[in-house]
Specification:
Elements (H helix, E strand, L loop, with lengths): L6 H36 L14 H9 L3 H14 L7 H14 L3 H14 L4 H13 L3 H14 L4 H13 L3 H14 L6 H15 L3 H14 L4 H10 L2
Helix pairs in contact: 2-3, 3-4, 4-5, 5-6, 6-7, 7-8, 8-9, 9-10, 10-11, 10-12, 11-12
Length: 242
């Protein structure tokens, strides 16, 4: 009959296992004490954070030039937030931010920021004119007409100002006022310019909208005298009938 291990052998194995367990527990205790000491030394010491460089206007300009408008907006907003009122770069940053908003079709933001610019500098005629353009983008034609009117009151003789004002007045159905503006555009356009034909067409359209066919016909014919192959003018003239 086979015999099992002796009692002495069992006692030796048990003592060996207990010794290993004691050593493991001792090692854990030492590790915990060491960690506690390290943590206690770091208490109260400032935590180092990564240094974030300030927003750079030059970097924003580069992004804008590369057509990265949304990234440019982020940098420009950060730059404006931290800039002091006397910062000479601030007007440029605001203008660039308006243009960036415009490029991403955020016309409402562009309009709001440009309104602040004009409030701070009411003599900024170009910004007043651009407010008119933005108002048109937002479908606010009456507001656009008001801004265009302000622009030409302060800087008459700018063909594009008068052109956009005339277009807006036409949209609003204010045909006589629109015709006055088109006539100013005509006077500012060289006599040998192909644009003369287009302006004749615009004036003719104001007469046609007021049911004045004879006056409209005269304008369309005058335009064809400048540009005989203009299909649009020919079509408008034909639409009037005999």
């Amino acid at each position: 009959m086979a015999k099992g291990p002796s009692r002495d052998t069992i006692d030796k194995d048990t003592k060996g296992s207990l010794s290993v367990l004691v050593l493991i527990i001792a090692a854990i205790i030492i590790l915990v004490i060491a960690i506690s000491i390290l943590l206690s030394r770091n208490i109260g010491q400032p935590v180092s954070l990564p240094i974030v460089p300030p927003a750079s206007l030059e970097a924003a300009q580069d992004l804008y030039i590369d057509a990265n408008y949304r990234q440019a907006i982020e940098l420009l907003e950060a730059f404006i937030d931290r800039a002091k009122p006397a910062d000479r770069k601030l007007p440029l940053a605001r203008d660039l931010l308006v243009s960036s908003y415009w490029q991403v079709d955020d016309h409402q933001q562009a309009f709001a920021l440009l309104s602040e610019v004009v409030s701070a500098n009411p003599s900024d005629i170009d910004s007043i004119y651009r407010l008119g353009l933005l108002a048109k983008e937002l479908g606010r034609d009456e507001t656009a007409a008001d801004y265009f009117s302000q622009a030409i009151s302060s800087q008459s003789g700018h063909p594009q100002y008068h052109t956009d004002y005339a277009e807006t007045l036409t949209t609003l159905g204010r045909h006589e006022e629109a015709r006055e503006q088109w006539q100013i555009v005509m006077s500012l356009t060289p006599a040998d310019s192909p644009l003369q034909a287009s302006v004749h067409g615009k004036i003719g359209n104001t007469y046609a909208a007021q049911d004045l066919p004879d006056a409209a016909r005269a304008e369309f014919e005058a335009g064809l005298g400048v540009a005989p192959d203009d299909q649009y003018l020919a079509g408008q003239l034909e639409a009037l009938g005999p």
